[in-house]
Amino acid sequence: MLADALLEIDPRGYIAAVGPTPPGCPLPESRPGAVWMPGFVDAHVHFPQTRVVGSATGPLLEWLARTVFPEEARFRERAYAEAVADEFCAALARAGTTTASIFSASDPGATDALFAALDRWGLRARAGLTLMDRGAPPTVCVPAGRALDAAEALIARWHGRDDRLWFCVTPRFALSCTPALLAGAAALAERHDLWIQTHLSENRAEIEATRAAFPGHADYLAVYADHGLAGRRSLFAHCIWLDDGGWDRLADRGCAVAHCPDSNFFLGSGQMPLARALERDVRVGLGTDVGAGRSFSIPRIAAAAYDTARLLDAPQTAEALLWHATAGGAAALGLADRIGRLEAGMEADLVAIDVPPYALDSPARLFDALVFRHDAGPVGEVYVRGRPVGRVKSR
Ligand code: GUN
Ligand code: ZN
Prior knowledge:
Helices cover about 40% and strands about 20% of the residues. It is built from 13 helices and 15 strands. By secondary structure, the chain is an alpha/beta fold. The protein folds into two domains: about 5-35 and about 350-390, no CATH class; about 40-330, TIM Barrel, CATH 3.20.20. Helix 11 packs across helix 12. The strands form three sheets. Strands 4, 5, 6, 7, 8, 9, 10, 11 and 12 form a nine-stranded parallel β-sheet that branches. It has a four-stranded antiparallel β-sheet with strand order 3-13-14-15, with no helix packed on it. Strands 1-2 form a two-stranded antiparallel ribbon. The relative contact order is 0.17. The structure holds guanine (GUN) and zinc ion (ZN). Guanine binds near residues 46, 64, 199 and 263.
């Protein structure tokens, strides 16, 4: 932590140098009273749930049927998807999230609209067409062949755009995919060297239903592993009910985890034991999991992670959780060499957060204020690769 720092950004948007402000520096202070820090990483968020945040119809399977599937069906209408995509990007920017790993709807047009909005706003993201060909109403299911063809087209159009947007293979969860779709998803990831994201071991009833739907596999994680979906580029959300053997296998395979504690409280899913992941060096980012999560704010999720860790008798500090909110999230998304730290050579994904003067008394007070005092510090400025995040026509 530097009390008075000079951050130099080169014309490409990379950090050229960072250090104490030299004596007699002629530059005016850019935002007095603000703390500059790496932009937040949301390791797990659902774009088509933007308008159903806080719909109290849980637990998981009931909430999906009552709230989520009917809402996600609306994204077949392009104009609706475009309007919500703008709201979604605005919500990320307002929360100081510069990078996100995003589930889109199952509709290819909606996913195209999402990528277009992310592009316009200048955000950084991995995002994927949500793959689902069973276990949900026909209004949201897309047959495997059609979905995989649509994914190919989206990859051709968006993957690698501006070296800031990437297509992510996104089977919703085992229960919404036939074995053929899971295998096709793995082949797609293999063919294009893509990341994979899905849900794992969130809710007891979901786990039971998965066991019944996939009787030939040892457990829930094995369903993904046996279909080629569990490797170093796999990001699993929740992981609440894994046993020690499951955690060992996640670690052995080098998979990453999105910890979504606010969602876990809201749906009553349970509590993810963060310590079990960390003692095995499993990479862990924080996810809002909007709309089961009730906020787009990653600091709020860090506060919920603190509460969860306390309840499990394995407390975490605000400082450690802010690390998961930034550098740890970057590592979970395979972006640790680019973002998450303010260091020379990193891309300048930054936020400025206004904090009350008393919070600057000590690092510990500052970390506590950033994580717990939600009313104290609005996000003032947001940059991705040195450029302000915001809705612009062309970049
Ligand atoms: N499992 C399958 N789909 C979802 C979803 O949309 N949200 C959450 N929290 N879990 C899921
Ligand atoms: Zn989710």
